[in-house]
Amino acid sequence: MIKNKIFFIFILAIAFSSCNRPVSRFTVKEEESQAAPAKFNFVNESKNTDFYIWNFGDGDSSFHKNPTHTFFKPGIYEVTLESIREKKSRLHTKKIIVTAPKSTLIEIKTSYGDMIVELYDDTPLHRDNFIKLVSEGFYDDLLFHRVIDGFMIQGGDPDSKNAAAEKRLGAGGPGYQIPAEIDAGHVHVKGALAAARQGDAVNPQKKSSGSQFYIVHGGPLSENELKSFSQRSGRVYDERITSEYIENGGTPFLDGQYTVFGKVIKGLEVIDRIATAKTKADDRPVEDIKMKIVEIK
């Protein structure tokens, strides 16, 4: 009889302990295979859990209960949710498949971090030229030779490769220009990728440099400031663009003057780091900031 009671208590203890163990489980709202950039919403169905640790398999993690995450490169990612209660934890893993991007994506690698940029399809001359140069390794080890905090970071001058510290930069190129594609209507919000060019006096058609580009850093903008600029310039901004300008800042006074042909979709903080680098009188960084650009396929 005593043995039966002890056995019963033992079974209850095991059952009670099992009830308190965390249960880790999650589902995905979308299809588990998408083209890059692929955005997934994860639904946490864990139980008996105090907090969570998500690992997305691409170097990023999260402590949110129901995170949203974007994968920017193709691959098979093993997403892991660790559900923790007291000193106990349980893991649940699911594989996410990200296929080749449908749009043109490039990665700009620097010592300050990496940026992923989407090139616009409605500026095909600039898109195709940029990809051609990237495929040839044209940009490898070139510098961000002109950096102005609150304005932009500029690179793509072939003369900047292995350039001496005292060498003035900014006049080099591949030997040709690209017809302007300003009519596409893209704006200079923070992260916009645009083509540098010569001034109107010698370039009234606003043709772009064959290789030099800049990425907008810009400054903060209020709704009143943007409205005032819109009235002065005659440019009308829809609600989406207005919201983006107010949220992230930019340089709207450049709109309609230069061809914007892409946008940073990951790595805006890298622009901040580069933009605040120490520079010399000619806006060239004191320490060289080299780039390497590759297409994401």
Could you explain how this protein is built, in words?
- It is a single chain.
- By secondary structure, this protein is of the alpha+beta class.
- The chain folds into 2 domains: 77 residues, Immunoglobulin-like, CATH 2.60.40; 193 residues, Cyclophilin-like (Cyclophilin).
- The strands form 4 sheets. It has an 8-stranded antiparallel sheet, with helices on one face. Strands 2-8-7-4-5 form a 5-stranded mixed sheet, with no helix packed on it.
- The longest helix has 19 residues.
- It is elongated.
- About 3% of the residues have low confidence.
Strand order, sheet with most strands: 11-12-16-14-17-10-9-18
SSE class: alpha+beta
Task: Look at the structure and name the CATH superfamily of the largest domain.
Answer: Cyclophilin-like
Q: State the CATH class of the largest domain.
A: Mainly Beta
Q: Write the H/E string, N to C.
A: HEEEEEEEEEEHEEEEEEHHEHE
Helix content: 10-25%
Beta-strand percent range: 25-35%
CATH architecture of the largest domain: Beta Barrel
Quick summary:
The chain has 297 residues and is an alpha+beta fold. It has five helices and 18 strands. The chain has helices at residues 2-20, 124-135, 223-233, 239-248, 268-275; strands spanning 26-28, 33-35, 38-44, 51-55, 61-62, 68-71, 75-85, 88-99, 104-110, 113-119, 144-148, 152-155, 177-178, 192-195, 208-209, 213-216, 260-266, 292-296.
Please name the defining characteristics of this protein.
297 residues, five-stranded mixed β-sheet, alpha+beta, Immunoglobulin-like, eight-stranded antiparallel β-sheet, Cyclophilin, 5 helices, 2 domains
